[in-house]
Amino acid sequence: MNKEFTERELDRIIEMAWEDRTPFEAITFQFGISEQETIEVMRREMKPSSFRMWRKRVQGRATKHAKLRSDEMDRFRCSRQRHITGNKISKR
Questions:
Q1: Residue range 34-62: average pLDDT?
Q2: Which of the chain's ends, N or C, has fewer CB atoms near its CB within 10 Å?
Q3: Residue 44 is inside which H or E element, if any?
Q4: pLDDT at 41
Q5: What span, in angstroms and rounded, lies between the C-alpha atoms of 21 and 27?
Q6: How far apart are CA 2 and CA 41, in angstroms?
Q7: What is the pTM of this model?
Q8: Which of 14-28, 31-45, 71-85 has the highest mean pLDDT?
Q9: Are 40 and 54 in contact (CB under 8 A)?
């Protein structure tokens, strides 16, 4: 992965990856990185034990993959998150 992110962008990627209802596709849409690249970011930025805990949590989780979600779960973003436009991060 050759993309450079600011500290704030990394924090947001990690936060989105931890959120149950935010699919990897939302991270791809906002930051232009694939699911595998998201996993690499998580591995690089987290302690090994935290990374293992996160991987166990998201592996096979239907809510983290848009294609596996049920039809009634149609939200693209977290309720706390403001509107996302392109690759810009919402202000907190």
A1: 91
A2: C
A3: helix 35-45
A4: 95
A5: 12
A6: 11
A7: 0.68
A8: 31-45
A9: no
Structure tokens at 61: 């989780």
Tokens representing 85 are 């436009």
Cα→Cα distances 30→34, 46, 57, 72, 85, Å = 11, 21, 22, 23, 8
Dihedral sign from CA coordinates of 81, 69, 61, 34: negative
Q: Are residues 84 and 91 in contact, defined by beta-carbon separation less than 8 angstroms?
A: no
What's the one-letter identity of residue 86? G
Q: Buried b vs exposed e over 36-48: b needs ≥16 C-beta within 10 Å?
A: ebbbebbeeebee
Q: How many angstroms separate the CA atoms of 69 and 52, rounded?
A: 23
